[in-house]
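Recall from the previous lesson that a structure prediction takes nothing but the amino acid sequence as input. Here we apply that procedure to Acyl-CoA reductase-like NAD-dependent aldehyde dehydrogenase from Sphingobium xenophagum. The sequence below is the only information supplied.
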Amino acid sequence: MMDHDFRMLIDGELTPGVSQFDVVNPATGKAFAQCPKADEALLERAVAAAKRAQPGWAATPVETRAALVNQLADALEARIGEFASLLTSEQGKPLDQAGYEIMGSVFTLRAFAAMRVEPKVLKDEGGNRVVEHRTPLGVVASITPWNFPVILLMNKLGPALVTGNCMVAKPAPTTPLTTLLFGEMAQAILPPGVLNIVCDQNELGALITGHPDIAKVAFTGSTATGKKVMASSAGTVKRVTLELGGNDAAIVLDDVDARQVAQKVYQGAMTNAGQICIAIKRAYVPAPMYDEFCDELAKLAKAAIVDDGSKQGTTIGPIQNQMQFDKVKALIDDARTRGTVLAGGDALDRPGYFMPPTIVRDLDDDAPLVREEQFGPVLPVLKYDDIDDVIARANGSDYGLGGTVWGKDLARATDVAMRIDSGTVWVNQHMAIDANIPFRGVKQSGLGAELGEAGLLEYTQAHIVNAIALEDA
Ligand code: NAD
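The prediction returns the following tokens.
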């Protein structure tokens, strides 16, 4: 058991909970640390602290705020090994991937620290000057999931702080520790109340989304919870950004080398054990190369090193929690009765939540594994004959987050990408997420943007000042 005394950050103080709960290492299935738990009173203290701090923070020059965000980035970078190792312990991902998440978090903070929102002159004629200013919203709540607990917080914290908001952040109950460690570090850098962190076991969400002193909820998580966030935010007409689930299709065109693209599709589906909102969750392959493509994916899956993420060489770690593990297992068991499991399919006979990478072929589009978001290391591979038909099949989903098209003829592949109803479509690459490029879902994959200038503006409101000189009396 880790002996670190994790505490929440409330009003600049490292604060114990009213009780504690276990945090489980998914590679062992055993508790390895304790997380402090907030009750409603502690949440109220956190919101009140953020509300108190916010006017002073907004009045602090943007250059000073940005410098402090850069200091957070520097401090995180200096402790990258420690953060990565804690991330692997609580989340499960292999250590090298944990390192990428921390480094990506550093880049994200720096990217936002470099962004500015300038007032816009909308009209300046005949003595009438109309200027659109962008002012902060006030207190912003961040609610994050368990797949990328650190970077998904930074996507929200960076823009919130640079634009003059204060924050109450709530991590997911199964991955709270890296957020708490970040809070410890931030205590020495940020003024009290600017960032507050509270932990729960899914009890605080509704209190946060209904809170009258919270102006905005920046939420990343499942579509089901996102709908609750939106409904509950309506009571106070909160701003919401929702980064929700996806069921991204990879469309492989008929002019590619099956082996080359199978490798890329495999990575896109299996990184972080498939627990990525924008993971490839279904692959559509032309009939003439279907067998070869499936076999290549199966070969890659069988070669994976599925183990504790803290062990050197591990390529796939465990699924993050028991509930998700059970869900993925049920989807695979169902798929087995409808199609052919070419690789994987059986959980490892050891403690922890290990499912080897699983490739399933010959499923119909209405199989649950194809229709639902599996969020785990299992990929259904589907056959197609006609490009218009496969585009319709790819778009036949309530989700519209990402997606990929793979083709040698770049113009043709780009044309296909234009016809996919998603927030982002990558061509011949995957997961090219960049803090300077906005990311958003269409349909039930989300609302509003994260990252980029659009993501920055989501933390502001337009304030128009329309002035004219009084005529001489
Ligand atoms: P989840 O929806 O179960 O939980 C997300 C967060 O919401 C947690 O912090 C949880 O405690 C909190 N929560 C629970 N009930 C709440 C309520 N009533 N009100 C407010 N908050 C509440 O999601 P998860 O299982 O942790 O994460 C996986 C999901 O997240 C997947 O669907 C995945 O696709 C999605 N995701 C989306 C993106 C994106 O950018 N679009 C990124 C990562 C993950």
